[in-house]
Amino acid sequence: MTPPATEPSPDDALAERYGRRRTPRRGLAFGLLAAAAALAVAFVFWATVLDRDQVTWQDHSFAVKSASEVVITFDVQLHRGADRAVCTLHALNALKSEVGLRDVEVQGDDDNRVRMTVTVPTSEEATAGEVVSCLAG
After folding, report:
1. CA-to-CA distance for 137 and 74, rounded, in angstroms?
2. Mean pLDDT in the chain?
C-alpha cells in the first residue's frame, strides 16, 4: 500500500514556484567585519604613529625691540631622524597684518631639541611675533 500523498506546505509551494531564499552566510559577514576592524586599527596606527610630524615647535616669547625689529624665542623638536629644519617666523602689527617675515635654519643638537632666539626685521612696529611653520629639510 502506498502512503497517501501529502499536500506541500505553503512555504514549499512558494519555494517550488520562486526558488528558495538564501540565508546569509555567517562566514562572509564575519570576514567583512574582521576586515573593517583591521582597516580601522591600521588607520589609527597611521594617524598616531606613522603620520607624526618630523618637526614640532612651540612659541616661547616675543619682544618688540624697536619700531623696525621684533625678537622671537621658540623651541623646536626634531623627530624621526630629522637633523635640521627651516622655520618661518612672522611679525604682526595691531591689525594682525604681517609686517615682517624671516626663514631660519635650525640644526638639531644631541637630543634634537633647540631653543632659538631670532630677530625679525619689520616694516613698521610689530605687536606680535610667532612661528608660522617648521619643515624638515
Report:
1. 18
2. 85
